[in-house]
TrEMBL record:
Keyword DNA damage attached: no
Annotated Pfam families: Acyl-CoA_dh_1 (PF00441), Acyl-CoA_dh_N (PF02771)
Protein name per its UniProtKB record: Acyl-CoA dehydrogenase
Recorded GO MF terms: acyl-CoA dehydrogenase activity; flavin adenine dinucleotide binding
Amino acid sequence: MDAALSEEQERIRRTLRDVLRERCGPGEVRAAVRTEAGYDEELWRRLAGRVGLAGLAVPARYGGAGCGPTELALACEETGRVLLPSPLLGTAGLVAPLIVALGTEAQRAELLPRLAAGELTGAFAVPAGALPAALGLTAPNDGDWSGGGRAGGVQARPAPTGPGWRLYGEASQVLGGHSADLLLVAARTGGYARGRTLLFVLRPTGARGVTRARLTALDETRPQARVQLRDTEAALLGDAEADVPDALARLGRCVAAVLAAEAVGAADRALERTVAHACTREQFGRPIGSFQAVKHRLADLYVAVQAARSAAYYAAWAVGGGATDDGTAGGLALAQALEALRKVAGEAVQLHGGIGVTWEHEVQLYFKRAASDELLFGPVHRLRARAADEAGLFAGRTAGEAVAL
């Protein structure tokens, strides 16, 4: 693996960092999350147009940049530094790649150029708490997570007349689902004996039977919504023979690397802020950063962030074809990055003292991001357990023997 970034990758990082430094201070972030959309729509259009952020992972023939996971991870590292509230994860990380992988040519031609241009934003709707399982991060993706009917989630039935489908049910904790222009809904179809999971494309604005409500979330910079569907017309993504669990599991490896890079960016910025505070905050007539105990704590945090960054970069490189990926690199990188972010954010609150827990200070935003991300995409021990299963680390051992090890 060549750890050096290419000129194009450096340009993406530099351009994005310049724009975000200008437009994404703590005050701007707080103002953006309180808007109806939950993010700065004008800034998102600028990022989509000038930087091409929305179309980084979209093939060039559909109007995108045609970049790979590494470029998307680098972009997310920068957005993670400022905790940018945006539809980036839902649009570029989840919806667009699934349309590329499973959509018909007509669906790709219709939707991908608009997603790449920032004209449409997307969200991926799965039952509450099912996103890590759907992406194969914490459990084998057998499709049972989609629920349907009495088991919860969303159920799909063929329309009584015509070629369409009807969706029934509820998906909560949908990231960005309250304002997305396009919903990709995972639904169970085929009854209980022969049920399977399929994906459906839904334009929620003006659609019959769609109710969307923004939820109160621990991390306001990552808005969540409850989506309720009642006899709602939707179009099948691709065809009924598509292997949706396999496509989601493959996508999960890329998403894990991207989320890991985003967490690394957040941890890096929180650490920078803490080091700056330690150099200026005086106690007993000297900066607290001059005390050996504080130096050791900050040094440990620096090592944790750099190790997590290396793991995230390797995962993005591996899933992009740089190495034979056995499915473990992304999950392990995400586990390490979430752990590093939790550790850095916790120490940041401690070293900032009383102001670290006040609403006015930005460090509490990073602490909430750390706690929220582990709830949404983890927890860390399950990410690592899943990677161990994928690698066959404890093959032939009982559960008790594996735990003892």
